[in-house]
Amino acid sequence: MKVPMNSSDSYLARPEDVIAFAWSAPMRELAGKVGISDVGLRKLLVSNGVVLPPQGHWNRVNAGRTVPAPPSPRPRGPGESGRIRLDARFRDLVPEAAAMSEEGPFVSGAVPEDLSDLREAELKAIGRVAVARDLSKTHPALGQLLKREAQLREQAARTGYSWDEPKWGGPLAQRQLRIIDALFRALSRRGHAPWTRYSQGELELHVTIGDRHFQLGFGGRSNWRGGERPPAKNLPVATELTLSVDFKSRSPLVTRWSDGDQKLEQQIPQITADLIVVGEAAFRQGLLEQREWEEERKRRALERQRAEIRKLEEKRVADLQASGELLRKAGEIRALIEQVGAAIERGRFDLPKTQLERWRAWASAHADSLDPVLSGQVLAHLYVRDLDDPIAQPGSD
């Protein structure tokens, strides 16, 4: 379903909870709670398929008259998440939906649990699909390409130059376009959204099944980022064609169709049903991949934490060893102070008492500066840092 607003703190809600919110109070009151205009809230809800109370509903409620109950959401369709994405402003108003398990169940009023049953149901609903003899009336998704082709045709008629001729005018190219037109019309009748992107002669073929997006291509494709280039104009219309969809399934699925006993034109119902199954399979596989991604993210976070713990422990040991070395040096200086004082008292050195005291104070201060306890250097390893509380204070548990 559509994302209502850009937000890094968006979340998924059940359609029935969004409907309950939409029917809980007049739109102006709800909009005030969300923090947007009532017109903006209305558009947002409608764009997500939420049926709103009819006009005059709240007047009838206030008058004590009987009003219809909020409608049930339509069943989850193939490839759909069955959720509505909301941003943070709705968090206190509409509860977050529990995550759907990658193990299902996936059944709804529009989707059987078994994918083979889904394909059979779609084939029955699709019925016969005729491929047009020409491209005089086509699916709107091909409009941009055909408009540009007509402009090139007029330009070539004026200039007489072959490079001004239509790019998709060859017999095989026309056949490809007729196949796509029929496939797009069949998908649209089943409520799905085919679309194209056309630029500088290249045609990208896309289809959205529920919330899943795919790219289609003729022939063997290794790079789905590019578009379709028109086939050479001298290729005959009977040239063998293969159509495929860019989905790597973990389970056996039909994602490639070729001319064989039946031409692609005769396989449009099967291709349409197969694409709808691909959309639903991609949704289910996406749940598994999301869980795997979360587990991998946690695993890497744990590895980073363990590496940080190892680094902290190594530093703690190094600081402990440094404390021992500093204490040894401080002890040696203090021992030296005592021995020098004793030697002067025995007359070994002729040094004024005031000079001795000044030296003793200077040397003792240096020893104290080295002493890890007096300087506080021991704090570097005395307290264990809690990674969940990186600014834990000395004396805490």
Q: Can you offer a commentary on this structure?
A:
It is a single chain. The protein has 397 residues and is of the alpha+beta class. It contains eleven helices and seven strands. The strands form two sheets. Strands 3-4-5-6-7 form a five-stranded antiparallel beta sheet. Strands 1-2 form a two-stranded antiparallel ribbon. Helix 2 crosses helix 3, helix 5 (115-126) runs antiparallel to helix 8 (268-345) and helix 8 packs antiparallel against helix 9 (353-370). The longest helix has 78 residues, at 268-345.
Keywords:
alpha+beta; 397 residues; 11 helices; disordered C terminus; 5-stranded antiparallel sheet; disordered N terminus; elongated; two-stranded antiparallel sheet
Pick out the low-confidence regions: 1-7, 390-397
What order do the strands of the largest sheet run in, or round the barrel if closed?
3-4-5-6-7
The termini sit apart by: 49 Å
Q: Could you give the order of the helices and strands?
A: EHHHHEHHHEEEEEHHHH
Mean of all residue-level pLDDT scores:
91
Q: In terms of structural class, how would the helical and strand content be classed?
A: alpha+beta
Radius of gyration: 37 Å
Q: Helix fraction?
A: 40-55%
| Biggest sheet character | 5 strands, antiparallel
Number of continuous helical runs: 11
Strand content: 5-15%
User: Got a strand count?
Assistant: 7
Shape: elongated
